[in-house]
Amino acid sequence: MVTVPQAIKPASGSSIISSDDTCPRSEALFDAGIHSSSVWTEHLECYSLSDDEPAKPADEHQEQQPIEETVKAARALYDFEGEAEFRELTVEAGDELFILKEEAGDGWSLVAASSGEIGLLPQTYYTYTSSFLSAPLAVHERKEPSTSTTTPQASLQEQLKPLSIQDTGEWTNPLPSFRQSLLKGKSLNRFSGFVTSGAEEWVLEGYVDPIASSSSSSHQRISTEDSINEDNRLSRLGLGEADRHYVDAGPAWQSKVPKFRVLVHSPSKRTSGLSGAYTVYSITSLFSSTTDESYDPYIPPISPTRITVQRRFSHFIVLHTSLTRRLPGIALPPLPEKQYAGRFSADFVEARRGELERYIGCIVRHPVARYAEVVTSFLSCESDAEWKRLMPQLLSMPAAGPSFFAHVFHPAFNVDVDDATEVIDRFSRHTLAVGKGTQNLRNIFGRIREVRLEMSKAERLLSYSLLSLITSTPSSSASEDVEDTPPQRNGLLNEEGAWCWREDCQDCLKLTKAMQKTSDSLQIVADMYDDHARRTQLASHEALKSVAHPYQCYEGIIEIHQSTVSRYKDALKSEKSNDEMTARCETVLNTTMAEMDTYHDQKVENFSTITREHLDGEINFYEQVLHRLKAARRTFDSPRFDELSRSPRQPSRYERDLKAPKLNPTPLPQPCPHVYDSTPMRPVNTAIHEGIGALLGKSQLGRGGSLLGRIWAE
C-alpha cells in the first residue's frame, strides 16, 4: 500500500545533512539552475522560486537555531548512470535513497544514497517508500510500526532489501534489444497508476478527512438527484467547491465552469540576473458572457472578458506538477520538453508557443481540470509578485491521493462490473488503434508537405521555361550552345522587347507581355505552394501531435480501471461481503469512465477542429492560386490584351534568375517531436547533444534529439 510520504526530520549531526550549513546567496544559474552550486546548499532553507529575487537569508535568531529539513525515504525505480562532472548520482534499481530536495530544477532532485553520497537524480527514476519502508537508521528518527493489513511488518534489515523488478509494463519500447538485455525482457511498473494515484489505498482503506467532523472512512452512495442538486452540494462537505467533483449519468463529469478559450501569444525575451535569459509568453483567457451550450471554444466570443498574464515555461512546470499531484484520477496532457540549444530562435519560440497553447487549451477544456485552484491562479493572477508568492505554496501542497476519490460523488449503483470490463477492453483497443492510425497520418502528412514543395519547384521551373522562351534568354543548362550576341541583333526580339523579328509588331508585343504576365503569376503560385507547406500545413502537422498518443495519455486511467474491476470482482465473490469496499470501487469506476467519456468528447472536438482547419487552409490556398491564375487569364481578353501594345515591354524581375534558377529551396521545417514519440532520457544530455559540449562535456542522444531537427520517419 502506497500512501502519502511522511516527512522525516534528521537529527542534528546527521551524516546526510549538516545542521550548521546555511543557504548562501544564489549564484548565476545555468538555465533552471541544476548545475549551480547553490542547489547543493539551498535545500537546507526556504528558497524562492522567483526569477528576479534571491532567497531571503535567515535572520539572526534563526541562525542560532539548528535547521531541520524534511527528508523523504525513497527507492530507485531504474538504473541510472550519472555523470560525475555534472554532480549526478549513479544508482541501481532498488537502491535506498533520501530525497533532500525534490525540486532541484528542470525535473531533477537532490538525492542522498545510503552510502552518504549526494547528487542529482531525475524525479521519474525514484518513488517514495514511506508506506512500506520504515525510516532509515541514518536519519536518526524511527517511525511507528505500520498497522496496514496489506504491508507485513518486518525487521529493518528485511525492509531494506532491494526491490525486485516486477513485470507489469510501464515503459515504451523504442530500444527493445537494450531493454531486454538490461531487464531480461521484463518491464518496470511495480508502482502502477492504481497505486501512485491513491486509488488502491482508497479502495482498501477508504479515507478519513482530518477536517471533517465525521470519523467514518466510508464513502456513501448518493442518489442521482443529490449528485446533481446544487442545494445539496454546499451542505454535504466542508470543502471548497474546487475540491469536489460530481459525476452525472453516463458516467460523465459534470462541468461547474463554462468553457472558455486561452491564447498563448506575443513571446518576448527577458533577462534575469539569477537565471539568465528566458522567454515570457502572454496568456489571454477569453470568457464569453453567453451560457449557450453550443458555445465553441475555438470561435472567439463577440464581446469576451479578457484576462492577460505573463508566464514563462518554468511556470507551466509549476502548473503541471501541481495538477498532477492534486488530480491523480485525471488524464492530463504531457508538458512539452525543456529545450537548451536554440531555445531563442524564432522557429523554436513559435513552435513552443503553439505547444503551450495546445497544452493549456487541453487543460481548460477538461470539465474538472479547468476549475482547479492552480489553473485559476495561473490564468488570473496578474501581479507578478503575487504569482511568485503563490508558486511555492502550489508546489508544497500535498498529493491528493485517496482524498481525490473521496471527494467524487456520483449516482448510486450506476456501474455494472461486466459492462465496466467490456468498456475498458474496447477503450484500450480503440485508443491503441487511434494512436497507430494517427502516427501513420502524421507520416503521410509529412509526405504531402514534401509534395507541395515539389509542386512549388515544378511551377517555378515552368515559369522559368516560359520566360526563357519569350525573352530568348537561355537557361543555365543551354547557355553553352548560344552565341554571346544580343537577342535584338539575332532577330529573336525586336526593339520594343517583343518576341518577334519584325519591328513595330503590335500582335507579338501584346502576346509577349501577356505570356510574361503568366510567367510572373506562376512564380507567385510557386511561392504560395512553398509558403503553404511551411506555415499552414506545418500548423496542421503540429496539431496532429495532440491526438497522436491517446493510449499513453490514458494508460494510467486504464490501469486504475482494470485494477479496480479486479478488486470489485474479488469483493463480490468473497464470502464476507464488503459493501463499503464495493461502494469505493464504484466511485473509482465512475471516475475512470467519466474520463473515458471526456476523451470521447475531446476526440470528436479535436479531430473536427483539425480536419476543419485543414480544409479551410486548403480552400483558402486554392482560392488564392485560382485568383492568380484567373488574373493571368484575363490578360488575354479584351480590352486588357489590346492595351498591352501601348508601351514597350519591361523586363521581368525573374529574368536575372534564368542563369541560376532558384530550384533548391531550404528543407521544410518539421514539427517538434511529441514527448511520447521516443523513450524519455535526460534533458541535460539532450543539451549536450545539441551543441553545448564545450560547457557540459560529451554528448549523448536525448529524448528525440533536436526538437526542430527531426524528420518523421518509420
Automatic annotation (TrEMBL):
This is PX-domain-containing protein. It comes from Suillus luteus UH-Slu-Lm8-n1. GO terms for molecular function: phosphatidylinositol binding. GO terms for biological process: endocytosis; endosomal transport; plasma membrane tubulation. One of its GO terms (cellular component) is plasma membrane. Keywords: SH3 domain. PANTHER family: SORTING NEXIN. The lineage of its organism: Eukaryota, Fungi, Dikarya, Basidiomycota, Agaricomycotina. The keyword Glycosyltransferase does not apply.
